[in-house]
Design brief:
The complex is a heterodimer.
Chain A: H1 12-42, H2 46-66
Chain B: E1 7-8, E2 12-14, H1 22-31, E3 38-41, H2 43-48, E4 57-62, H3 67-78, E5 83-85, H4 91-99, E6 105-109, E7 116-121, H5 125-132, E8 135-138, E9 144-147, H6 150-160, H7 163-176, H8 182-191, H9 196-203
Parallel strand pairs in B: 2-8, 4-7
Antiparallel strand pairs in B: 1-2, 3-4, 5-6, 6-7, 8-9
Helix pairs in contact in B: 6-7, 6-8
Classes of the chains: A mainly alpha, B alpha+beta.
Chain lengths: 72, 206
């Protein structure tokens, strides 16, 4: 096998457990961010949160529009 | 202190002074061409209410009233050349795609791919409920959008189960916690067979 143990894993069981734990922590951290963001939103006027959201969203779509497809 | 202003009744939501994003403007323009019953569901609903993410597609359910009605719907969207159908050649082809193959039709502004409007025929109870009980998101003079009721939107996102879906569900839940019909939300969670653990882990104690 060409790439046998390419990651040089010493203890597969422990490694997979670490991966699962890291996945769980990542999920929890992302969920915590969503909660913090939603709570911030509720403490912020519509004018302010939507102004910030507009900057982020519009930038993405402006870039997309510069990359117009050519008909095949 | 809560500064986010909204009005939320059974049928209508308003967010006074919300600045419209390009995504909102394209959505309002697109739905102004739709004269069949429709409802916007999924990610864009969360984004509409401030969720910090982008999306490639805006999911829309419409009712299947047959090929003739569908052809009028299709032709009205593409007639002035502003939008194109990305994955079909004409209304008949699109109808076949959506009925025989149960797939979705995608429209976008001409020569672009996103944001695109992913159109599906309603075909299950959750779709019909959203269609029949759609909320109106009222942007005042800018226009109106029909969106899925928030309780079913949250429950369906919990059912879908990806991290992005959970985050959308959590965002809508926290943002509108004081106004949601909790009994209705619990009923949807029950009927979609979502475990109490999942609901509690994502939304916090229900």
């Amino acid at each position: 096998m060409k790439y046998k143990n390419i990651l040089k894993i010493k203890n597969k069981k422990r490694f997979l457990k670490q991966l699962e734990e890291s996945k769980r922590q990542n999920f929890e951290s992302n969920m915590k961010f969503v909660e913090l963001h939603a709570l911030w939103l509720k403490r912020t006027s519509n004018r302010e949160w939507s102004r910030r959201q507009k900057i982020i969203i519009d930038e993405v779509y402006r870039s997309n529009r510069h990359m117009k497809l050519k008909p095949a | 202190m809560i500064l986010m202003e909204y009005t939320y009744s059974k049928k209508t939501i308003t967010l006074p002074n919300k600045e419209l994003t390009l995504l909102d403007r394209v959505a309002l323009d697109f739905v102004s061409r739709i004269d069949v019953q429709y409802v916007i569901v999924s990610g864009y609903v969360a984004i509409l209410f401030g969720r910090s993410r982008n999306t490639e597609d805006i999911d829309i359910f419409i009712k299947d009233d047959g090929l003739e009605s569908f052809s009028k719907f299709y032709d009205k969207i593409v007639s002035d050349g502003k939008y194109w159908a990305i994955n079909t050649i004409d209304a008949s082809d699109a109808y076949d795609l959506m009925t025989t193959h149960k797939s979705s039709l995608r429209f976008a502004e001409k020569n672009t791919l996103d944001p695109n409007f992913e159109i599906k025929f309603a075909n299950k109870e959750t779709d019909y409920y959203s269609l029949e009980n759609a909320l109106t998101m009222d942007f005042g003079i800018a226009g109106k959008l029909k969106i899925s009721p928030l309780e079913i939107e949250i429950a369906y996102k919990l059912f879908l189960g990806s991290e992005k879906d959970f985050a959308d569900a959590k965002h809508i839940f926290i943002t509108f916690k004081e106004s949601l019909d909790m009994d209705k939300l619990k009923a949807f969670i029950r009927e979609l067979n979502i475990s109490k653990d999942t609901a509690n882990n994502v939304l916090g104690y229900l």
